[in-house]
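Supplementary Methods. Inverse-folding protocol.

Structures were first reduced to a discrete structure-token string of length 384. This string, shown here, constituted the complete conditioning input.
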């Protein structure tokens, strides 16, 4: 890789009496003054000499004969730099050994975290922790089944040139828990979301904690049908208020993704700088936005006149309800609301013109289009 942290060069096949001259060019600039081996060593090991070098080494024997060799390299004497994330970490008891305890983030001259960096844990055999060499992910070797404080590890980040930087982390295992309630707002107790309720749907919840949990945030909100993810919200997530309440406002961005069917909602949480996670899961909620078919009505005797108002209607679906609307002339008959009250009223009704419509509502609360308007004359008088 031609990257070094000292710039020293070894010149082989040199005899007694030979002289060595170094012609040094830095960062494609003008060649520097010719140097002896001692002058070159003093120069290359002094401060602030990082850069791209081209060094031509000329060997001259006592007779004046010369030979030369060219070496190019990058001099990098700058240690990696760790980011500023907290190195004091609290995690819950009994978390899986795959749980990320700490994600070391060191940068080299290129400025990209982890690029060109190799990680290790100092005295790794005696440590409770493991680390991935290329990503800096730290995990426990075994599940921590009891609470305790101050497990420490020294992370060593080494760049391509061999420069090293150490970072001490301190991990405590606590009785910590993080969870949240989840509520579909405005859908009643039936846990069915109809078309009107979906048009105004919001979610909210209250976060609960056990132990010291700070910096709580929502990582994502996922809508699932069974085990299948229908939609996941990962941006523009709700913030959590000082009293641990959050609300997902209504937006077609997420509502439009939810068709009819049974859903659970999973809200994933993070706290303590990502070292603790938690979630809330709803019981099943059904989205049903399909209204019943438009009902139909007709007089049983199929004329515009009737002696008793007997009607024939389309079949009412199981679990649906049907509402009758009767007008006497232009005035609503408020006592008529269903089949029974309609029959009772018509038994003693006046001989005038009536108009009847019916509307069906399913158990989700979706309302059908009103039926055809049936207008008829009630005529109870027999012929002479």
């Amino acid at each position: 890789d031609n990257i070094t942290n000292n710039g020293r060069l070894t010149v082989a096949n040199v005899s007694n009496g030979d002289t060595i001259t170094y012609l040094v060019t830095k960062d494609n600039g003008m060649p520097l003054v010719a140097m002896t081996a001692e002058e070159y060593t003093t120069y290359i090991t002094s401060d602030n000499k990082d850069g791209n070098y081209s060094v031509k080494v000329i060997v001259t024997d006592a007779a004046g004969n010369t030979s030369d060799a060219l070496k190019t390299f990058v001099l990098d004497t700058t240690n990696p730099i760790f980011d500023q994330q907290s190195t004091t970490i609290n995690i819950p008891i009994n978390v899986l050994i795959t749980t990320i305890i700490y994600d070391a983030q060191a940068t080299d001259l290129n400025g990209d975290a982890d690029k060109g960096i190799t990680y290790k844990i100092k005295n790794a055999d005696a440590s409770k922790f493991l680390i991935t060499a290329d990503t800096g992910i730290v995990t426990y070797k075994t599940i921590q089944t009891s609470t305790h404080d101050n497990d420490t590890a020294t992370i060593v980040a080494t760049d391509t040139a061999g420069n090293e930087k150490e970072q001490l982390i301190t991990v405590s295992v606590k009785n910590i828990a993080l969870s949240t309630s989840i509520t579909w707002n405005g859908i009643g107790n039936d846990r069915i979301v109809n078309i009107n309720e979906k048009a105004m749907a919001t979610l909210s919840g209250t976060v609960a904690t056990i132990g010291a949990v700070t910096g709580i945030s929502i990582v994502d909100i996922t809508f699932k049908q069974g085990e299948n993810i229908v939609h996941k919200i990962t941006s523009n997530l709700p913030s959590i208020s000082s009293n641990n309440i959050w609300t997902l406002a209504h937006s077609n961005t997420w509502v439009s993704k939810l068709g009819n069917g049974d859903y659970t909602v999973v809200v994933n949480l993070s706290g303590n700088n990502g070292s603790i996670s938690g979630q809330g899961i709803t019981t099943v909620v059904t989205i049903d936005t399909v209204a019943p078919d438009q009902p139909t009505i007709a007089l049983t005797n199929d004329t515009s006149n009737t002696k008793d108002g007997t009607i024939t209607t389309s079949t009412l679906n199981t679990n649906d309800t049907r509402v009758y609307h009767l007008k006497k002339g232009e005035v609503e008959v408020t006592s008529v609301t269903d089949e029974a009250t309609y029959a009772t009223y018509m038994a003693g009704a006046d001989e005038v013109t009536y108009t009847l419509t019916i509307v069906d509502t399913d158990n989700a609360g979706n309302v059908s289009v009103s039926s055809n308007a049936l207008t008829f004359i009630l005529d109870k008088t027999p012929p002479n």
